[in-house]
Amino acid sequence: MKRIVFLAFLTLLFSMTTLAADRAPRRHSKPRPHHTAALKMPAPLKAGDKIAIISPASTPGNDNPEKAAATLRAWGFEPVIAEHVLAKCHMYAGTIEERVADLRWALNDPDIKAIVCTRGGYGSAMLLDPMTHEDFRRNPKWIVGYSDITALHSAMVCSGVMSLHANMGGALGSRGANDSINLMLRDVLLGNLPSYSVPAHPLNKMGTARGIVIGGNMAVFTNIGGSRGWDFLDRDNIRGRDIILFFEDVSESMARVNSMLQALRLKGVLKHVKGIIVGRFTEYEPSHDYTDMNEMLAETLNGYNIPVCYDFPASHDEDWNYPMIEGCPAMLTVAPEGVTLTFEKQ
Q1: Mean pLDDT (the chain, rounded)
Q2: Architecture of the CATH domain 195-343
Q3: Distance between CA atoms of 268 and 264, rounded to whole angstroms?
Q4: What is the value of pTM for the model shown?
Q5: Pairing state between β 142-145 and 163-165
Q6: Chain centroid offset of residue 11 CA
């Protein structure tokens, strides 16, 4: 009898615990990216459209925003400089709150049609935790930049919006409105999808691939790898998608770059990739009998049965940094005579 009463008591206790759990308020986590949905391409800009200039990472030079604004103005746009664009806090362009405020303002204002970052450096990933995917997709618009801005590109792609890896405030101002690479950026902003042809490289692996283009600064997207909701190479984001991966970096040792490459391999990213674009690695030293970064990378990358090209114009060298549309479908052809990358409509 005692055993029956005891079992009945346990059953009642379990039922009450389950009911309480069902009624308890649930914590809302950041939504996971929808990997099967096509990414939204921001609308083409037209003359008179407003472009925000912000500093989500490090503080730029004092003349950077105004010189960048002059180039945008020469193209017929109306630049609007954010409140904290020249702020300083340690190595960053203001506190997290100041930089988040400028980013939210630029994203939420429907009259702002694109966002140009002044420079990279450090700190863009710090802005993601206060943000939501809805912040990035409510008013789809280009975010323009490279280097540390890769963190924002990753957030945009995870939010279902294309983003623009390209030269930013410093190059816009120093190179001017008529520079050939700056004009490539202008053409993308105006809605023209680019097609690039570049010389062959002796390490290239031949082949053709189609997929959406994803990538940027290798250290930045490796560092945010695994972050909940913000990693554009997360398995949930790339599952069911064909990916063309591109990457570049500056001032990273060969050992460090190899470590990041192996992290991508162990994470399973390379199994989902249909083609790889290796940009230019700059400011590094030869190491352990390797004289060239591409030679070291090829030992791993060329073991995959996919096309791979080297020294593509994506880099910290502003003379060798073509605009790359993150999340946009493209066709990559690596042939003996050279490489072509053609961005395509969905």
Answers
A1: 91
A2: 3-Layer(bba) Sandwich (3.50)
A3: 6
A4: 0.90
A5: parallel
A6: 52
